[in-house]
Amino acid sequence: MDFELTEEQRAFAQTARDFAQAEFAPHAALWDAEGIFPKEAIAKAGELGFCGLYAPEAAGGLALPRLDATLVFEEMAAVDPSTTAFITIHNMATWMLGTWATPAVRDHWGPLLTTGEKLASYCLTEPGAGSDAASLKTRAELVGNAYVINGAKAFISGAGSTDVLVLMARTGDAQSGAGGISAFAVPADAPGITYGKKEHKMGWNSQPTRTISFDNVRIPADHLLGREGEGFKIAMKGLDGGRINIATCSVGAAQGALNAAQQYMQDRKQFGKPIASFQALQFKLADMATELVAARQMVRLAASKLDAGARDASTYCAMAKRFATDAGFTVINDALQLHGGYGYIREYPLERLLRDARVHQILEGTNEIMRVIIARRMLDGDATEAIR
């Protein structure tokens, strides 16, 4: 068991850190304040391969292990969790399309998505199907050589500003459950697609969020991903990686907050000396660092399990997502507290990091659902030996 990164992994991380400092740091506060979706900066990330980190090489991706991808995402999220989170969603959708699309669809969209020239949204959640994703009602009917799609999706990141939608829709009857769901690649400008208003959110303001409505949207039959009825399985495979990605964004945001807090404690003076000299605050910083390291190692363990195709990878992904998003938020909140009143104003990054990280405990499956996933596995007879 080796916890040390290779030289190549360190180089990936350093490249991402340098990129984030150059392209995100000067603008992140403005993007947040004015709700700007920085497509040009995302395209620059694509030039470095960051828009197709683990997409297959056949689609133009780097086909990196998920562990290596976490190193890149963490460094970018330390500066701008919102923009980085969108890039992780784009990576997930790009991987799904690159893995399950027909050769013609993959060859068209793959190079465009992996370079960041075009962007993708992931469309699973519906107004009435959030945690209970298998109850989704959007339908896709095969009519001749085309699928006709009707329904609606909600809380879709990038909606209205992206180019292709990786969509989950029901092809079976209303009682078919998870087995009646299929996945599709849908051009975002297809006739019959309309986008709702841009949602006003607590955080994640550098990426738009909208509802999407589908009214007799026709797509060629070869835009099916995988086979009919495999959509929910594809969605869950995507979400295992997505949970690691969002957990990583929390780790990165917490690292950014810890960096700021450590520096602030050295600079800020009260009662004639730096606040770093007060043992109570030293202990707080120690606890923050300990929680952050634990979260990071859990995320990397889950990523390694997913890379290895381990039987219990989904359980570890759920554990990592639950723990890292909770711990990350706590670390950021403590860092804000250490800044006192300055942590609450926008001149400092703490309040933005806090607002951006809060939603990580909700999306890609709420942390309550993560507990359900973990508990179901832990009630199996071999669980206490298998999950360690």
Automatic annotation (TrEMBL):
<dbReference type="InterPro" id="IPR036250">
    <property type="entry name" value="AcylCo_DH-like_C"/>
</dbReference>
<dbReference type="InterPro" id="IPR046373">
    <property type="entry name" value="Acyl-CoA_Oxase/DH_mid-dom_sf"/>
</dbReference>
<comment type="similarity">
    <text>Belongs to the acyl-CoA dehydrogenase family.</text>
</comment>
<dbReference type="Pfam" id="PF00441">
    <property type="entry name" value="Acyl-CoA_dh_1"/>
</dbReference>
<dbReference type="InterPro" id="IPR009100">
    <property type="entry name" value="AcylCoA_DH/oxidase_NM_dom_sf"/>
</dbReference>
<feature type="domain" description="Acyl-CoA dehydrogenase/oxidase C-terminal">
    <location>
        <begin position="229"/>
        <end position="379"/>
    </location>
</feature>
<feature type="domain" description="Acyl-CoA dehydrogenase/oxidase N-terminal">
    <location>
        <begin position="6"/>
        <end position="117"/>
    </location>
</feature>
<dbReference type="Pfam" id="PF02771">
    <property type="entry name" value="Acyl-CoA_dh_N"/>
</dbReference>
<dbReference type="InterPro" id="IPR006089">
    <property type="entry name" value="Acyl-CoA_DH_CS"/>
</dbReference>
<protein>
    <submittedName>
        <fullName>Acyl-CoA dehydrogenase family protein</fullName>
    </submittedName>
</protein>
<dbReference type="InterPro" id="IPR009075">
    <property type="entry name" value="AcylCo_DH/oxidase_C"/>
</dbReference>
<dbReference type="InterPro" id="IPR037069">
    <property type="entry name" value="AcylCoA_DH/ox_N_sf"/>
</dbReference>
<keyword id="KW-0274">FAD</keyword>
<feature type="domain" description="Acyl-CoA oxidase/dehydrogenase middle">
    <location>
        <begin position="122"/>
        <end position="217"/>
    </location>
</feature>
<dbReference type="InterPro" id="IPR052547">
    <property type="entry name" value="Mito_Isobutyryl-CoADH"/>
</dbReference>
<dbReference type="Pfam" id="PF02770">
    <property type="entry name" value="Acyl-CoA_dh_M"/>
</dbReference>
<dbReference type="InterPro" id="IPR006091">
    <property type="entry name" value="Acyl-CoA_Oxase/DH_mid-dom"/>
</dbReference>
<keyword id="KW-0285">Flavoprotein</keyword>
<dbReference type="InterPro" id="IPR013786">
    <property type="entry name" value="AcylCoA_DH/ox_N"/>
</dbReference>
